[in-house]
Amino acid sequence: MTDLQIGDVVAERDVHLTREALVRYAGASGDFNPIHYRDDIAQRVGLPGVLAHGMLTMGLAVETVVPWLGDAGRILEYGVRFTRPVLVDAEDGADVHVVAAVVAVSDGEARIDLTVTFGETTVLGKAQVRVRTA
After folding, report:
1. Is residue 101 a contact partner of residue 110, using CB atoms and an 8 Å limit?
2. pLDDT averages per 10-residue partition of the chain, 134 residues
3. Segment (H or E) for 69
4. Strand stretches in 1-134, DSSP E
5. Which residues 6+ apart lie within 8 Å of 40 measured at CB?
C-alpha cells in the first residue's frame, strides 16, 4: 500500500440488490419507511418506485475498499452526498457498480474517491474515503 499512485484503481465491484435485501436491511437498521419496500406507497409520494436505503448504498460503497485495506479500522473518515436514488425493481432488482480510485496520497494516508453508479447514473456524489496506508 506504500507505492500508491494517483489514479490507481484499488477496488471495484458490482452489487446486486433485491427487494429481499431491502427488507433485511430495514430490519437491521430499523428504517421501515415503506418507500423501501412498497411500490404503491413510493408512487403515492411521487417516487418512480421502491428505493434502496441511502445508508445501505453508502455502506455497500465503502465496503468495496475493505478487502483492499485488509482492515476496516484503517478507514479514518468517510462521507458522501446522496444525489440520485437506486430504484429496486420487484423482479429484476438493481445492480450498483462501485469503483475506488486513489486521488491523493500523503504521509501515511490516502484519499480514495468512490464512483457509485446505478445504470448510467451516479448515485453518490463526493463519495470520499480517507484511509491510513501505513
Report:
1. no
2. 90 98 97 96 97 98 97 98 97 98 96 98 98 94
3. helix 66-69
4. 9-17, 75-82, 94-106, 109-118, 121-132
5. none
pTM for this predicted structure: 0.93
- Report the pLDDT value the prediction gives residue 134, as an integer from 0 to 100: 87
Question: Strand, helix or coil at 19?
Answer: helix
CA distance 75 to 48: 35
Q: Please tell me whether residue 37 adopts helix, strand or coil conformation.
A: coil
Query: How many angstroms separate the most distant Cα atoms in the chain?
Result: 52
Q: Which residue, among 30, 130, 31, 115, has the nearest Cα to 74 in the 3D structure?
A: 130
Cell of 110: 490516502
Among candidates 62, 27, 83, 120, which has minimal Cα distance to 36?
Answer: 27
Closest CA to 112 of 67, 72, 65: 65
CA distance 38 to 34: 5
Strand ranges across the sheet with 121-132: 9-17, 94-106, 109-118, 121-132, 75-82
Task: Check residue 40 and report its DSSP letter.
Answer: H
State the amino acid at position 7 in one-letter form.
G
